[in-house]
Amino acid sequence: MGGRRLRALLLLASTLLLACGADEGGVRELSRIRMCHANMNAICTEMACYRDKHGEWASSIQQLADSSSKSLPLVCPESGLGYRISSDGEGGYRLECPSGHGCVTTGRRSWCEGSGR
Prior knowledge:
The chain is of the alpha+beta class. It has helices at residues 2-20, 26-54, 61-67, and strands at residues 84-87, 93-96, 103-105, 108-109.
């Protein structure tokens, strides 16, 4: 009886993994995208602290990192490429992922929570 349960559980687990896209790396990719979004959220929090301290937005990711007492996630976990900060032309900033996972324009995210993209 125990063997049947184990086989049934294994079948259920493999079915769930296939449904989630684990066979194509879907779960890992989604995890990296969510980590990238978390990284960008952390950078935006540091941008707000930088502005409070200096009265302006940081003009580069390196300027922000040099000013921060925390270790910032400076690269996208999927590609290993660095995030980019630029002026949005309206007195704000734009933070972009080099892998296309989204951007943040003066605190407004381009992705929906829970969507992964």
